[in-house]
């Protein structure tokens, strides 16, 4: 994430895995502060950009009405050079000055003007009605998990608020944040914007939903030259094996693919 208020730099980023999980042997110190890419603690109320930690994994995050109506959905920019929309963090504890690994916090998009009236605070929602019904505190996140990737410190963000937020009267359900490649399939008219020459690599971890990865491209302008490499995603539920979904795309596959990406993709040489 970019931190605009940092006097030492205008380009400090907070690196985060959108779906990667933490190895079981990696120690977590829950009072440890979350750091931006300059090594400074992530501060409550300051401005950051959320970006993936590894090259080739895409850009930052933005808001879009992908289905042609409100509310907005959170989307990742495919272009790695685009930082997306800035966000701020707020803690359940008004005395907190920085975000720690064990902090219950909200994430809010800022510097965005749109037609949807809903709050720009991130909110967890799942495809299963059971989760929507039983989750009463869907905008609180916790369990930031730390990981080292090629000498870079990055973090996995998980929706998993403390039961104390609803005074132990509700059932708290945790869930990972996944990534969807989405190109306006559900608009009234097919999008005329073509997505091409995009590389997605090093996508690993676990998913709370069975459909772990989706590529939904326009029927008018199918995606072309999309390279997907080194995918290893595991579904943690009980509905069967992990699946993927592909519309109007034939990706070029490189390296390991678990689960298989698309039914009849174009394989690389």
TrEMBL record:
Annotated coiled-coil positions are none
Name the protein family: Belongs to the protease inhibitor I3 (leguminous Kunitz-type inhibitor) family.
Known EC number = 3.2.1.15
Q: Which PROSITE patterns match?
A: SOYBEAN_KUNITZ
* Single GO term (MF): polygalacturonase activity
GO BP terms: carbohydrate metabolic process
Question: This protein's superkingdom?
Answer: Eukaryota
Record's keyword annotation contains Transmembrane: no
Q: Write the record's keywords in alphabetical order, separated by commas.
A: Glycosidase, Hydrolase, Signal
User: What is the residue range of the signal peptide feature?
Assistant: 1-31
The protein's matches in InterPro entries, at most eight in alphabetical order, are given as: Glyco_hydro_28 (IPR000743), Kunitz_inhibitor_STI-like_sf (IPR011065), Pectin_lyase_fold/virulence (IPR011050), Prot_inh_Kunz-lg (IPR002160)
Broad EC category? hydrolase
Indicate what this protein is called per its UniProt record. Polygalacturonase
Tell me what organism the protein belongs to.
Handroanthus impetiginosus
